[in-house]
Amino acid sequence: MKEKRGFLLRLSAAFLLFAILSSFAACGDKGYHVARLYGMGTFCAFTVEGERGADGDALPLLAPALSETEALLSHRIDGSPIDLLNGLDYTVLMDARLVGDLKLAEELKAKTGGLFSVSVLPITSLWNFDAEDPVPPSKEALAAALAEMENSALSFENTLVTKTGGDVDLGSMGKGYACDVLAEILQVRGESGLLSVGGSIAAVGKKGEALWQVGVRNPLSASANDTLGTLALTDSFVSTSGSYEKAFTYEGKAYHHILDPRTGMPAESDLLSVTVVAGKGALSDMLSTACFLVGSEAAFSLAAEYEASLVAVKTDGTLLVSASLADVFTAAMGWEVVYR
Amino acid sequence: MKQRWWRPLDLAVVGGTLFLSFLLFLFLRPTEKGVAVTVYIESTPYGEFSLLDAPAEHTVMTEKGSLRLSFDEDGVSVSFADCPEKTCVRTGKISRKGESIVCVPLGVCITVEGGSLDGVTG
Q: Is the whole model's pTM more than 0.80, yes or no?
């Protein structure tokens, strides 16, 4: 009888201890702070260790690195390496990382049969999705832009980059590239953090003992806060391409910003959005665009070639997830996952 | 007489533990609904608002245009914005920690501080 009572008391004590521990665990991580900045034409949120402004805060290093990355990649900034490449048809890039990622872009272009390309400024500038009142370009203007893009290519000799055909727009890799640069700063300092540059995210290390929780936006919802599931990540990079971003309606027809370089028109994909989890930021960013463009059938094998995983939503609402994410992805209520 | 394996005091201990756990859960769990709303214009915090002060309206003036915030007991939304896309208006009302409304053309971000998600991709 005493044994039973003792068991009951021990059970109660254990339950109390569990309740206390779990409640404290739920109180949140006080070892991090969130800084919000505007850069690369979007809002960025950096969750980094320590208190803001305290000695050793990584933010004073991250903010200028973001500006420098924008100055490196933007074709809109006079005298930037990409502006020079577009103006001169050749340039010497001192940044080995960028040369490597441009080579990767050309590789993806070959693998997608030209569907993915960074030599697309003639059509992206024509559509100008950032304009106050965007309108579809005329057929004549589009034909001229496509003619300009014929036989587009980048070639490399060490760090000398030569361009033929269409001018370069790095919109499909810039935010992911910035994640690579910023993540490296934390990695060198031996710190962890979650770095969001628009929809591209670097999950560096762990949040204390926990994995970083990254929501995946529901492309069927108008709200950017509506998520279809959560990725639990460490040391990974995530990017998403979706037809809901930068879209406009003109004379009753909807146009989205992911363009097919062969036609110059918004791509007719069977996907609404593709989220890529990969080992590098620029890779995840470029793959998200490339996978959207090639469609659901080819997307998963393309991602697998780069050891990347996908969360993709088809136009019929089907949620496809790479089998490699089975332990990483948790679907929100109401979503049924089809693993590929 | 058969002796019971529990006594009234055992029940009191178990009941007390459950009650205490419930109280701990109630007071220490992260509350989903946020109160503090921070508005940023580009990288600069523009102001902090409290949902407890609702109903209220506030117009944020930026160099690129203006945006009207409407606060009520359910949250905050953008009721008007001088931007072409109106994505911020379509986002609707936010009230939970970690939720944001972003207006890229005007460079305005409205966020309910905190939240269980560390980030959102999309």
A: yes
